Amino acid sequence: MSDELVERFELAFNKIHQHLKEMNRYPKNDNFAELLNHSKDRGVVREYYDVLRQYAKLRNAIVHERVRDGYYIASPHVEVVEELERINQTLDQPPLGLDIATRPVLFFYEETELFHVIEAFGKHGVSQFPIYRDGAFTGLLTDAGIVRWLGESVDGGSVVVDRMTVGDVLRHEKVHNVEFVSEAASVFELEDLFESSHGEGEKLKAVMITEGGERDGKLLGIVTLLDLIKVDGAEG
């Protein structure tokens, strides 16, 4: 039984090691502890960081401190092996971006009267809405963008909202960094997109999940950095 548990432990451990290599794009230093440390803020790795560090020590004892064939100085308990296999299973089949996305997504067209959008901001407590024209995505309208437009539109102490459309305001909105992914995208892929946007100009504002990942495909969900932080907080 001991040999079987060791084999199962090593198999699951090696698969997790491979996942860590993939997450870190196969760096030259592929030491398990180093890869784990570099990945500690990501999804399931963050949740199991401490336990994986301990399992790495156990693995070193099993592999490097074997007394002779079939006799190990340390051997994993069945509960340890089963937990390691569960961690690997989660890495094999990570949660989808749609699992944490806001959906259904409320969106508006450029010809929509601005008054309706202002009402929606207050009612739904969100900070941005996707905007479309003739079925094509044209940008994000944010609460900050509306405030900026109001500041630029004050005339004699008042602002005329009547007959204004979303399109009128969208022209005053910043061009936000938005990515499009398919419904098959995992949470890990979304984390990569937000992470890679750091230091590359404007940070990623949102990830739009659409059918087939097409820019103008059917909108299925939207994910912000806050959504990922909420998930990490829940897992922690």
From TrEMBL:
<dbReference type="InterPro" id="IPR046342">
    <property type="entry name" value="CBS_dom_sf"/>
</dbReference>
<protein>
    <submittedName>
        <fullName>CBS domain-containing protein</fullName>
    </submittedName>
</protein>
<dbReference type="InterPro" id="IPR000644">
    <property type="entry name" value="CBS_dom"/>
</dbReference>
<dbReference type="Pfam" id="PF00571">
    <property type="entry name" value="CBS"/>
</dbReference>
<keyword id="KW-0129">CBS domain</keyword>
<feature type="domain" description="CBS">
    <location>
        <begin position="174"/>
        <end position="236"/>
    </location>
</feature>
<feature type="domain" description="CBS">
    <location>
        <begin position="101"/>
        <end position="156"/>
    </location>
</feature>
